[in-house]
Amino acid sequence: MSARIHIAGYLLFAMLLVRVFGSTQKLIPTIALDAAAGGLAVSAALLLFSTLRFSAKIQVSILFSIGASLLIYAYAKGGSFSLIEAFSRNTFLLTMIMSVGFLKLLLDLELTQGKLPTGAKPYLKTLIGLGLFGSVINISAPIMMCDRMAKEQPIDLFTARSMTRVFCACSSWSPYFGGTALVLTLVDNVSLIAVMLTGLPLMVLTIISMYFIAIIRHPDRVSRFTGYPLSASKLWLPIALTVTVVVTQALVPALPILVVISFSALLLTAAVMIYRLGLGKGSLRLQKHVVSGLPGSANELLLFISAGVLATGLTAFLSISNFQISLTEYTLSTACLTLAAMILIAGIGIHPVIQISVLTPLLLPINPDPELLAMTYLFSWGLGNASSPLSGTNLIFQGRYGISAWQGAIHNWPYVIPMYFVAIGLMALLNFVS
């Protein structure tokens, strides 16, 4: 591994420390912390750009170019903006994503080396396990589980389809996901509890429907399925993280929830690693993740930085133009149409984070209901990524297990379409209750 990658890892870890511990003090001005976090993130991004896939390089370059062009145009017309904000606006959610990634080290300690079970019951346990672990440690969960399963049986389209659907559904409710972090960053006054209670049923229904459809339509394949073992002893991680988050929030209620989650993930990982492996070996494992695991988030890093520049450019452009959308209120029917459009646009390769960054400056002036807007975004994130051939999830299954991203996305549409109507029902219930 090159020194360039190592340096990028240390820069990203420094960004985490700035964001997590900078939020706990009052001495250093906010603008100085933003400048430091943004500078560290951009420096790491420059070092890691060459490691991206070609398609990701093109996407990031286009986003950055459009954002930069809008900023230059706005400046030429007398508009004002902050470059510090452009590069730092998404560093809080990047901090959360990368901090949660440390939890993979704890699950690595629990990996079983025995022969994996097969059949319908292990299949169901695998889906439930992915729902639990995926909601906590993000993309590390399906990779860890599939890597273990692949040692005994190659990952085929059936397995990839099952795993991608459940994993993408995790983003509809989990407070540990990048989508939720983005929503909490961009939309003010969102009730996290309301969001979680609205989105959780989609993941539960995904697991239930996946299981029963599989045993009815693919009984032979289910009977041969090699599942990832799920036992009560492995449930300690999501429970421990939740308890740590709740206790930290109670002790320091002024901290933003993204900082609380980030701090809790880092604290829990360090404490358990040192307790289980000792100070020396535990510290070495943590350092190894810094220099190799953090740079593995290069795609998210570049995407969120470029999306931040695009969002800042769009905001600056709107401030010096007379452009206004014709909407005067964000109703349930508007949310349903917006969700459908976002899923379709994601299906052609435009990531929801880009769509959210573009839509938010347009929609916030009409004062939409924050929970309804948040759920539109989160459902589009989950269903859109499942249906997109360019989503990180489908691309990982292509690069790691040889499952075509286009094939995986197309096979997920029969799931996405009915789940769209489930999402509409959940948003209607949310709208009625609120």
Structural notes for this entry:
- The termini are far apart.
- It contains 21 helices and no strands.
- The mean pLDDT is 88.
- Helix 1 (3-22) packs across helix 15 (279-293), helix 13 (236-251) crosses helix 14 (257-277) and helix 16 runs parallel beside helix 18 (352-363).
- Helix content is 75%, strand content 0%.
- The protein is globular, with a radius of gyration of 21 Å.
- The chain has one domain.
- With 434 residues, it is mainly alpha-helical.
- 48% of the residues are buried.
Secondary structure elements and pairings:
Elements lengths: L2 H20 L7 H19 L5 H23 L6 H6 L2 H11 L2 H5 L11 H18 L2 H11 L6 H14 L7 H9 L5 H26 L1 H5 L12 H16 L5 H21 L1 H15 L4 H23 L11 H16 L4 H12 L6 H18 L4 H10 L3 H29 L1
Helix pairs in contact: 1-2, 1-5, 1-14, 1-15, 2-16, 3-16, 5-10, 5-14, 7-8, 7-9, 7-11, 9-11, 9-19, 9-21, 10-19, 11-19, 11-21, 13-14, 14-15, 16-18, 17-19, 17-21, 19-21, 20-21
